[in-house]
Amino acid sequence: MITIALDAMGGDHGPSVTVPAALGALSKEPTLKLVLVGRQEVLAAELAHRRAPEGARLTIHHAPEVVAMDEPPAQALRSKKESSMRIAIDLVKQGVAQAAVSAGNTGALMATARFVLKTLPGIDRPAIVTTLPTVHGHVHVLDLGANVDCTPEQLLQFAIMGSILVSAVEGKPRPRVGLLNIGQEDIKGNETVKKTNELLRASRLNYVGYVEGNEIYTGDLDVIVCDGFVGNVALKVSEGLAQMISRFMVEEFKRNWRTRLAGAVALPVLRAFRNRVDHRRYNGATLIGLNGTVLKSHGGADVVAFEHAILEALAEVDHRVPERIGGELGSMLGEGQVA
After folding, report:
1. What is the pTM of this model?
2. For domain 2-123+289-322, which architecture applies?
3. Which residue pairs from 65-73 have beta carbons closer than 8 angstroms and sit at least 24 positions apart in sequence?
4. Among its keywords, does the record have Chaperone (predicted)?
């Protein structure tokens, strides 16, 4: 049985999303046990509304405070020690839960997780990694916003962690790793990227070299590494582009009766397309590099998306991702590959 602690009060929607998502995940995974962390009276009322009583696989852990979505991370870390986010991570630290999932304030979650769980030996900073769809399947991209400025050594650490994550979860012995840059030629890029390129070529990773932005979705890679500033911009551009394409398609199919008829005929294809690019199927970004498993759900996640984040956490615990990263890093430290 694997236990996961949920910050049930986090995100834009709170218990109205986290509670039904928890019930959905429990119905699919018989080996899963969930702890709803938050205000007892609110969570109990939500469960009663859904006629789902507490039991051996679903319990409530009272937390009187909530971290606001716009609250400064330092303030949350200093003054919200009884928040649902903090207590969910504390449960991982205490060994009561094997993972924590939150849709709450990203900065506060990263700061709290790093303070409570600490980073693995050899890792300077944790990174945020998630999967994105590609024409060949999907790719893991990191960092997506945790570290705006990075050294070449830290980018090498991200590459190692991403490679181990893919090996552990997907069973690939030598994941293909690329470094995001403004071109594929060796003369392109800033000094940090060029130095990182040298470190990656000297490592025993399956490093394929520079990749450009378009290759995030068209390349045949398993891991793409960049600093958090670039990664977050790339992610937000992708989300905006997807929303624009979706809106344009709806507008065109509603333009007149002929286009409405064409839309009705094309409906099965459109549904299949939407399913392939549905961002909810990729919800759940891992805070990788910590002594424990913590996943960040999108703040505006709906029930389907938050449930996916829970199942992603379950998969990472099942594959012992932090332990495997720690073990691999230990061997690489011995080879001098990690600063």
Report:
1. 0.87
2. 3-Layer(aba) Sandwich (3.40)
3. 66/9, 66/10, 66/38, 66/39, 67/10, 67/104, 67/105, 67/108, 68/105, 69/11, 69/12, 69/104, 69/105, 69/299, 70/105, 71/105, 71/108, 72/107, 73/105, 73/107, 73/108, 73/110, 73/111, 73/112
4. no
